[in-house]
């Protein structure tokens, strides 16, 4: 029997409880626009209880051995795999992506927990050579309680990156996921609780984003802020963090350039890029976004991409054979539609798609645009939707210069058969992650993060654990002894 959409509550101090705040959020199914649940917001008193709990558990959890913490995270990972079918269905209902993508997200989240479980046992320090009789040690320690904020596009993986890193390092955490996709994150917390995570170590709170963030970051118990969100939200939380002297990690989106040189198999590259671009209806921060195609290959590439886009099956993510679901909410669909309409009015050619689908749901057709350039907002701004803007370039220097001419610096892509070209361009691109002949930028073993307006700090890999640690230098000398010469009379 298929599980229904779960009841949504706050998870505070080891207890599931109804919110006690004044506001409510309605969780909608983006394929049908029908309500799934009403979420009552957290109250100030409940936030204070969560803050009190992380204060109480900070020392016991940091003193819990890495082996014990690892065992809890590994059990939670196993539970996610066992419950993958039901969690994936919840994810589709509230977020819209096709079921196969939701399954993959849950399983990757389990892999992330396994990675952090083992990496937490390898948070090594070092002993520095010094004078005889001294010991100079560098010891990694948990940074302290964490406040974390995650978005709606990947509710499972974006939350696990923060939960896994913090918990493996020995830090208690208060996580505020998006109120639009709370069901998936609630299942993560159920897995952690069922795996034996002590009450009070991890909390899930839902409510007004500005009010929750201001309340949490004003409390001196919070020593670390981790955000995955927009640049605008990042600026607001940065101000709060600076005032409170809180260390931050911020992943703030991107507008990744894709440089396609003339020596590639155009059809193969178009197919790979289309698969990546239309995943999650284009609502991916590290997805191929601005396509720079050498002028000798641009016509063939645009034709191939438009053909693939026109053939995709768009619909309810739970329906068999669906390759792309809806956008997650009405404001996202409306923003994408406005950018495409504006580009068309300014001279861009619509090669495929170009508009919303009739009927209920926040659907927008897979869209390919030609004759696009920096003058178009659909090219210069992060679209965060299923839109492919294509422009041309003549030489490598031009392509790199235009690719770097953006405030963003999260991901970038290079497609070429030349090792020399791949090496030069990957070194010259201003991005935190570069994919060469691949559309995959995120692995559990490698660091993920951006530069410039895309944020700072990294998640995943050993760097993802290190983000929740501080290094203490201990300079130990022999005991002091008195050396007093007595005078004579």
Automatic annotation (TrEMBL):
Molecular-function GO term, any one: succinate-semialdehyde dehydrogenase (NADP+) activity
Active-site residue list: 251
Enzyme Commission number(s) of this protein: 1.2.1.16, 1.2.1.20, 1.2.1.79
Top EC class of this enzyme: oxidoreductase
Aldehyde dehydrogenase domain mapped to chain residues: 16-474
Keywords, sorted A to Z: Oxidoreductase
InterPro entries: Ald_DH/histidinol_DH (IPR016161), Ald_DH_C (IPR016163), Ald_DH_CS_GLU (IPR029510), Ald_DH_N (IPR016162), Aldehyde_DH_dom (IPR015590), Aldehyde_DH_Superfamily (IPR050740)
Source organism superkingdom: Bacteria
This protein's record includes keyword Oxidoreductase: yes
Keyword Cell division: no
Protein family membership: Belongs to the aldehyde dehydrogenase family.
Protein's recorded name: Succinate-semialdehyde dehydrogenase/glutarate-semialdehyde dehydrogenase
Source species: Streptomyces iranensis
Taxonomic lineage of the native organism: Bacteria, Bacillati, Actinomycetota, Actinomycetes, Kitasatosporales
């Amino acid at each position: 029997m298929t599980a229904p959409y779960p009841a949504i509550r706050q998870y505070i101090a080891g207890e599931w409880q109804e919110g006690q705040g004044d506001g409510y959020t309605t969780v909608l199914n983006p394929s049908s626009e029908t309500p799934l649940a009403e979420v009552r917001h957290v109250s100030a008193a409940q936030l204070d209880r969560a803050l009190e709990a992380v204060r109480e558990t900070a020392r016991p959890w940091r003193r819990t051995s890495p082996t014990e913490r690892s065992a809890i995270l590994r059990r939670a990972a196993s539970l996610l795999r066992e419950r993958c079918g039901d969690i994936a269905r919840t994810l589709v209902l509230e977020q819209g992506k096709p079921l196969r993508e939701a399954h993959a997200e849950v399983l990757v989240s389990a892999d992330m927990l396994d990675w952090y479980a083992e990496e937490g046992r390898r948070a090594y320090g070092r002993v520095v050579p010094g004078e005889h009789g001294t010991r100079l040690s560098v010891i990694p320690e948990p940074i302290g309680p964490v406040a974390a904020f995650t978005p709606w596009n990947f509710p499972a993986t974006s939350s696990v990156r923060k939960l896994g890193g913090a918990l493996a390092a020995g830090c208690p955490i208060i996580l505020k996921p998006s109120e639009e996709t709370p069901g998936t994150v609630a299942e993560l917390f159920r897995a952690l609780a069922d795996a034996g995570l002590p009450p009070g170590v991890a909390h899930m709170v839902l409510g007004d984003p500005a009010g929750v963030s201001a309340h949490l970051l004003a409390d001196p118990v919070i020593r670390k802020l981790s955000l995955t969100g927009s640049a605008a939200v990042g600026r607001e939380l940065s101000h709060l963090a600076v005032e409170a002297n809180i260390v931050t990690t911020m992943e703030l989106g991107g507008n990744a350039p894709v440089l396609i040189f003339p020596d590639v198999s155009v059809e193969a590259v178009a197919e790979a890029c289309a698969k990546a671009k239309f995943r999650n209806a284009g609502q991916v921060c590290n997805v191929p976004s601005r396509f720079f195609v050498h002028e000798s290959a641009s016509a063939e590439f645009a034709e191939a991409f438009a053909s693939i886009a026109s053939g995709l099956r768009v619909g309810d993510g739970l329906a068999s054979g669906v390759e792309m679901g809806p956008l997650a909410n009405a404001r996202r669909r409306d923003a994408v539609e406005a950018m495409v309409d504006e580009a068309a009015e300014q001279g861009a050619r619509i090669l495929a798609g170009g508009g919303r689908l009739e009927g209920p749901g926040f659907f927008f057709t897979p869209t390919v645009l030609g004759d696009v350039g920096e003058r178009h907002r659909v090219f210069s701004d992060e679209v965060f939707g299923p839109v492919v803007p294509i422009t041309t370039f003549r030489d490598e220097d031009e392509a790199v210069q235009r690719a770097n001419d953006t405030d963003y610096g999260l991901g970038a892509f290079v497609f070429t058969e030349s090792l020399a070209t791949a090496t030069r361009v990957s070194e010259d691109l201003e991005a935190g992650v570069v994919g060469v002949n691949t559309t995959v930028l995120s692995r559990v073993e490698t660091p993920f993060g951006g530069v410039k307006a895309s944020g700072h700090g990294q998640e995943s890999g050993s760097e993802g654990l290190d983000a929740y640690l501080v290094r203490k230098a201990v300079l130990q000398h022999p005991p002091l002894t008195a050396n007093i010469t007595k005078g004579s009379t």
